[in-house]
């Protein structure tokens, strides 16, 4: 089988699996080859690698890093399974029929639907794109886009697990997320212009059978969201192991600075919404309101989501939508935090 | 990363999770209650890898049957690439989920995971090759004690010596003013940490969910302290209650003291963290 990265049209299919030299004109290093080389190199040089990681700072960094990934992976896998099942076994036309005709009403309904449909933000962007494609009003699709990763059952369960002593956190997250999603939907309906949107056209992961489409979607989502999860874990571990406690303590002392600091942190860390509650729980120096801002902002806008939104809906959309979401999410978390926490 | 490499990474990730979940390794990183979820996730990851390879073979065989120029995975991918290049109205992501997550303009293939997927190798290698130890004295001295007021002080059994957890002793000593500890010989297990001023502590990290939220609970040691104290050594300390307390230099939290009469090194316990706050 040919394993080239930019696959040329092959005259004959190759039979030997793992074969690394394509007969095409472009000889490229293939990813399985790179994978094997990387693994071999690391196994060969595991002694020096271990020594380099044996300093207390690095050890603590590695432990936190592995811990965040190991702890988040089951939730990620669960979310990916459910979102693949919905993407494959529930026809998108179902959502179009289920939504009320009037956009002003469709927005809150779509927001609530997001609460029922599990999936992390990486999954919700393509689903929202599919909704727009199937004729759902963009305002409702955007409300869904924002609410689905923020307040779905998997995320809320994770939040409850991460904050065993603060059940109000779950309620506040639900209220805050839903409010931001609906207000953004209505805002789009009032101010949004269709030419900012560039709806995608192509259905993802078509396979020969539903089973194939399902597993393609699972594999892809785990690889994709998993990569971003690792990125987030790296940042979280660095913050935990290296950043002096005094920085965070200084930021945590001022109520205004603390909310803004954690909101920016949520954008930069880009943690999957299924795992962010555990990171928020570890930021114990900060007030609950600041940590609520972290939980409300994170699933709605972060670096990776911005990239995904720009890719799916177009850059003109993303540069308007993302900052508005950020400002609104911070304002709403302060409001909800004052009322509920 | 193409389909085969993705399947390999998924399989290895599943195998590593299974290994961590079936041994005590996972207890260094997450709470004990997460074990069933870990094992389930490992099974799903391995299943996804197997299914992916299986469907890849089937697609290749289908392709071989329909004749030259078609079939095989490269055909799939070139098809996607073709669509990606085919027109301005078909965005750079081809609407496929794989494209999303990258800035507009970066090329994407339907079956290629984005480059960020390579990062999944990091936790895999860290788990298999390094298997870092549970958080120890480095984190403990950098983080303030997280002692919380206990809800109640249940009656203690009349054994001697009385075995207590670090959290239980510290809570009774600080918030119960040692009333339930007077005249008892207690035995506490934890690891050694020494702060900048040279004060030795017996520490246990308390865990809510995973090591990222682990926080230390510390007991100061006075009395017959062993002459050489190596940080991160696990000790079972026997001693008696002393009313002396101190403030944690990091966050000002209360640290009770224990007058040591004997200390013996012990192996790292089965679960290095204190999970009593989870219940």
UniProtKB/TrEMBL annotation, chain A:
Pfam families: ArsP_1. It is found in: Cell membrane. InterPro entries: DUF318, UPF0718. Residues 1-26 are annotated as: Disordered. Its main location: membrane. Keywords: Cell membrane, Membrane, Transmembrane, Transmembrane helix. It comes from the Bacteria. The chain crosses the membrane at residues 29-49, 61-90, 139-163, 170-188, 222-243, 255-271, 317-340. One of its GO terms (cellular component) is plasma membrane. It is a multi-pass membrane protein. The keyword Transport does not apply. Belongs to the UPF0718 family. PANTHER family: UPF0718 PROTEIN YCGR. This is Permease. It comes from Streptomyces galbus. The lineage of its organism: Bacteria, Bacillati, Actinomycetota, Actinomycetes, Kitasatosporales.
UniProtKB/TrEMBL annotation, chain B:
Keywords: Membrane, Transmembrane, Transmembrane helix. The keyword Transmembrane applies. Residues 61-73, 87-106 have a biased composition (Low complexity). The keyword Membrane applies. Residues 74-86 have a biased composition (Acidic residues). Residues 61-108 are annotated as: Disordered. Residues 181-273 form the DUF1980 domain. InterPro entries: DUF1980, DUF1980_C. This is TIGR03943 family protein. Pfam families: DUF1980_C. The chain crosses the membrane at residues 38-57, 116-135. It comes from the Bacteria.
């Amino acid at each position: 089988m040919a394993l080239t990265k930019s696959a040329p049209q092959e005259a004959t299919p190759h039979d030997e699996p793992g074969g690394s030299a394509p007969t095409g004109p472009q000889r490229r290093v293939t990813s399985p080859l790179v994978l094997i080389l990387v693994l071999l190199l690391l196994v060969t040089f595991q002694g020096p690698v271990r020594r380099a990681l044996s300093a207390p700072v690095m050890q603590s960094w590695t432990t936190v890093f592995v811990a965040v990934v190991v702890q988040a992976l089951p939730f990620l896998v669960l979310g990916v399974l459910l979102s693949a099942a919905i993407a494959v076994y529930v026809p998108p036309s179902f959502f179009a029929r289920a939504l009320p005709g009037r956009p002003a009403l469709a927005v809150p309904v779509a927001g609530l639907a997001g609460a029922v449909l599990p999936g992390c933000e990486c999954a919700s962007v393509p689903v929202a794109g599919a909704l727009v494609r199937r004729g759902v009003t963009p305002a409702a699709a955007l409300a869904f886009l924002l609410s689905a990763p923020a307040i779905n059952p998997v995320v809320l369960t994770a939040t409850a697990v991460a904050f065993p002593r603060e059940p109000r956190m779950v309620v506040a997250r639900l209220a805050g997320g839903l409010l931001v999603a609906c207000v953004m939907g209505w805002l789009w309906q009032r101010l949004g212009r269709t030419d900012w949107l560039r709806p995608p056209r192509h259905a993802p992961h078509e396979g020969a059978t539903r089973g194939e489409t399902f597993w393609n979607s699972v594999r892809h989502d785990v690889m994709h969201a998993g990569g971003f999860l690792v990125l987030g874990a790296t940042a979280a571990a660095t913050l935990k192991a290296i950043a002096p406690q005094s920085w965070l303590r200084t930021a945590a002392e001022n109520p205004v600075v603390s909310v803004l600091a954690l909101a920016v942190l949520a954008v930069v860390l880009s943690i999957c919404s299924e795992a962010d509650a555990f990171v928020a729980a570890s930021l114990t120096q900060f007030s609950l309101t600041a940590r609520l801002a972290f939980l409300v902002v994170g699933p709605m806008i972060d670096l990776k989501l911005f990239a995904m939104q720009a890719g799916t809906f177009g850059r003109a959309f993303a540069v308007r939508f993302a900052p508005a979401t950020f400002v609104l999410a911070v304002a709403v978390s302060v409001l909800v935090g004052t009322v509920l926490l | 990363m193409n389909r085969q490499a993705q399947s390999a990474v998924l399989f290895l990730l599943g195998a590593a999770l299974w290994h961590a979940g079936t041994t005590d390794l996972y207890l260094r990183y997450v709470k004990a209650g997460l074990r069933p979820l870990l094992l389930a996730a490992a099974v799903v990851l391995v299943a996804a890898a197997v299914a992916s390879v299986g469907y890849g073979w089937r697609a290749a065989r289908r392709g071989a049957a329909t004749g030259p120029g078609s079939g095989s995975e490269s055909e799939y991918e070139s098809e996607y690439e073709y669509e990606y290049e085919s027109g301005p109205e078909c965005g750079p992501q081809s609407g496929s989920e794989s494209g999303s997550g990258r800035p507009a303009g970066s090329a994407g293939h339907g079956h290629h995971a984005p480059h960020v997927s390579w990062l999944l190798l990091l936790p895999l290698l860290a788990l298999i090759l390094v298997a870092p130890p549970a958080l120890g004295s480095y984190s403990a001295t950098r983080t303030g004690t997280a002692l919380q007021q206990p809800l109640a002080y249940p009656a203690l059994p009349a054994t001697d010596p009385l075995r207590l957890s670090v959290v239980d002793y510290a809570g009774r000593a600080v918030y119960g003013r040692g009333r339930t500890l007077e005249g008892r010989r207690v035995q506490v297990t934890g690891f050694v940490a020494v702060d900048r001023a040279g004060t030795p502590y017996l520490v246990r990290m308390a865990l809510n969910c995973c090591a990222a939220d682990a926080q230390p609970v510390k007991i100061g040691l006075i009395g017959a302290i062993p002459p050489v104290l190596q940080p991160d050594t696990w000790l079972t300390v026997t001693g008696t209650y002393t009313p002396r307390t101190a403030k944690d230099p990091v966050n000002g939290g209360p640290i009770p003291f224990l007058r040591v009469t004997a200390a013996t090194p012990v192996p790292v316990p089965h679960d290095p963290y204190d999970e009593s706050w989870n219940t």
